[in-house]
Amino acid sequence: MTTRYLKAPFSSSSSANHNIRRPAAALLHLVCAAAVFSLIVFLIQSSFFTGGKLKPTLVNLHNKDDEIRILSDFQFSVQQCVANRGLGLTAHIIDHCKLVLKFPQGTNSTWYNEQFKIFEPLEYTYDVCEAILLWEQYRNMTTVLTREYLDARPDGWLDYAAKRIAQLGADKCYNRTLCEEHLNLLLPAKPPFHPRQFQTCAVVGNSGDLLKTEFGEEIDGHEAVIRDNEAPVNEKYAKYVGLKRDFRLVVRGAARNMVTILNGSTDEVLIIKSVTHRDFNAMIKGIPNPVYLFQGIVLRRGAKGTGMKSIELALSMCDIVDIYGFTVDPGYTEWTRYFSEPKKGHNPLQGRAYYQLLECLGVIRIHSPMRSKRKQDWSDVPSREMIQRAHVAALRLKRTLSGQGGLGQFGSCNVWGNAGSYSSGPVSGSPDMSYVRKNSNYSKWEVMPFNSLRKEAQDHFVQMDGVSLYKMDGNKLEDLVCVRHSLKSES
Ligand SMILES: *[C@@H]1O[C@H](CO)[C@@H](O)[C@H](O)[C@H]1NC(C)=O
Ligand SMILES: *[C@@H]1O[C@H](CO)[C@@H](O)[C@H](O)[C@H]1NC(C)=O
Ligand SMILES: *[C@@H]1O[C@H](CO)[C@@H](O)[C@H](O)[C@H]1NC(C)=O
Ligand SMILES: *[C@@H]1O[C@H](CO)[C@@H](O)[C@H](O)[C@H]1NC(C)=O
Ligand SMILES: *[C@@H]1O[C@H](CO)[C@@H](O)[C@H](O)[C@H]1NC(C)=O
User: Is 217 inside any structural domain?
Assistant: First the structure.
């Protein structure tokens, strides 16, 4: 058993070859860490035999053993990745799921939490098994609100629809016609975007760091670029942030400026993060851009703020997600912005640690001034195959322990709906839209024929039996709304 774990740090990481000339002392450290860890794992495992509480069958025990080994190997790869890429952060393994990310001794924790009267901690504990389940799930998810979703949810129209409309004047949609009038404008019948639709996506935050590098061309080289709120895109900033504009996540407060911000771009898709209301709808009726509502979860842990929502959107459409202009380097005391005065920051250390974890789980790839020398070398991030193996192991372990849900790809579906033919259903819009909008291509993503999608997206749709997955509420993994489309009507 010991041998098995000793091997892990050297055999499992693709970076092993690059590190051959490391000093022997470092290797000794790893060997010691591995030995201590395997002892801990052994103790944990033996407690299953003696504890008697769980009374697992022999078959379960055998499976669990395999899963724990796969996840333990994975933990070592994540640890190695953090050591190589974390700019001073270190990962400390607690068991096959739990991991602590620590900032170096003497790190200046300057952000003060008024509520809890403490400075930000220098250590963060994560459950890697939960994190990998959550973020892999996003790769199969729909993150745009649709009519089929509201139809499938038992309380969809009465309760949930009302939550997406500000100043409705009622807590529920007692008058459904009224609610439809508010939502029709931004409510496609079916998902306008698909998992695996794009190969590469750039998510561009607004950090002032962007002015220290010239990532513009690199950003524009992505198949889709996702930006945030009022981020300006013009010649002045082109070499720093690029000119390509495909998606923009906006909070509703930005409605008043939206026409100015769009500055003549007609194709950029607006995704509203929270709720719509009269002013926003009036603005939408006058512009040619596609506009939809975000459908996703409220993240209570991890990094806060709008950046995470952009990453969720990106993962639901893209194979590879590159992030630029996020505050992920050491030394932040305030949030700078590339186009305006700095704002007061919040949770810089917590955010930085969480983004580093996400990079080492293969969710995002971080680009920043302190990392620009490394450029496009991702060999020390666990491979896609390894992440998928770890995902399967985490899922099996969770299902074995809880005894809930099936192991299949629909094991997390709590509510089922049927959308019939994939291509049927009304296009978003309302009768009183301006001439400009009516005669634009605002609905082009909604009406795009299935067979014009990228092959990977089509294959995914078939592998999923034509089922779209949506989040219900909160951060629960097993709380999906699943809507089945007829596969036949597409071919
Ligand atoms: C820590 O930050 C505070 C406030 O920015 C500063 O006054 C202090 O000199 C810093 N200490 C170190 C060791 O960097
Ligand atoms: C995601 O979709 C793929 C098919 O493309 C499927 O094999 C896999 O099980 C799904 N994963 C999750 C977490 O739903
Ligand atoms: C429901 O809303 C529609 C649209 O605003 C309105 O025409 C209708 O009178 C309302 N019905 C009731 C019963 O209030
Ligand atoms: C608006 O677009 C024009 C033409 O592309 C450009 O010259 C101008 O700088 C832009 N204005 C802003 C505020 O981005
Ligand atoms: C809409 O898209 C079609 C096909 O791409 C194109 O021929 C047409 O010119 C576009 N119309 C407008 C107003 O952009």
Answer: yes
